[in-house]
Design brief:
Blueprint (H helix, E strand, L loop, with lengths): L1 H56 L6 H15 L2 E7 L3 E2 L3 E12 L1 H12 L5 E10 L10 E12 L10 H18 L3
Helix pairs in contact: 1-4, 2-3
């Protein structure tokens, strides 16, 4: 009769030992999280600042006409003339949208360079791609020497997408909850 009792006690000891090992692993993970909490909070603060900078560089969709007016003003101030300015349908990319515009300008070589430089220095993110520059030839009665075709892409925040990085309060509360588990398990 003592044999079945010993076997059941050994089984119970083995089960408790397995639970103890699992809890020890969980406790160690929680302790690591507690040690890393300050570093994670600093990393979050840096990422949050970067997100705020990106938001400042990405206008809302309703600001797009104002941005396009700035592009037009940059062209006029540079001495180029727009012969094509055709906005395309926005392309959603998640939390932001691409807003491509087909553009053709005519002007001098240096005026075109000044215009592209002004685009690069706008306080919004604007990319120029598919740049094609052609000489206009001497027979042209226009005062301009080159014709430039390109795709201008402006970016806007997409309000239907994610709102940015995870809320710090949520991330911090999750880490603190795990830290409490670690403290409870270590007898503090």
């Amino acid at each position: 009769t003592t044999l079945p009792i010993c076997a059941s006690i050994e089984a119970e000891i083995a089960e408790l030992d397995a639970k103890h090992q699992a809890l020890s692993r969980d406790l160690e993970k929680a302790r690591l999280l507690v040690r890393n909490l300050e570093r994670v909070e600093k990393e979050y603060a840096i990422l949050h600042q970067q997100w705020e900078v990106a938001q400042a560089l990405l206008p809302e969709k309703n600001e797009m006409p104002n941005l396009l007016r700035k592009v037009s003003a940059a062209g006029q101030q540079s001495g180029v003339e727009f012969t094509l300015f055709r906005p395309q349908n926005p392309i959603s990319k998640g939390f932001y949208s691409d807003n491509p515009v087909e553009v053709r300008i005519e002007g001098g070589y240096h005026q075109t360079g000044v215009f592209l430089s002004r685009l690069a220095n706008l306080n919004r993110i604007v990319n120029v791609s598919d740049l094609k520059i052609q000489g206009m030839g001497e027979k042209n009665e226009s005062p301009y020497t080159i014709k430039t075709d390109f795709r201008l892409t402006a970016y806007t925040l997409d309000s239907s997408g994610p709102a940015g990085p995870t809320d710090q309060g949520q991330a911090t509360s999750e880490i603190k909850a795990q830290a409490k588990v670690a403290q409870a398990g270590s007898g503090h």
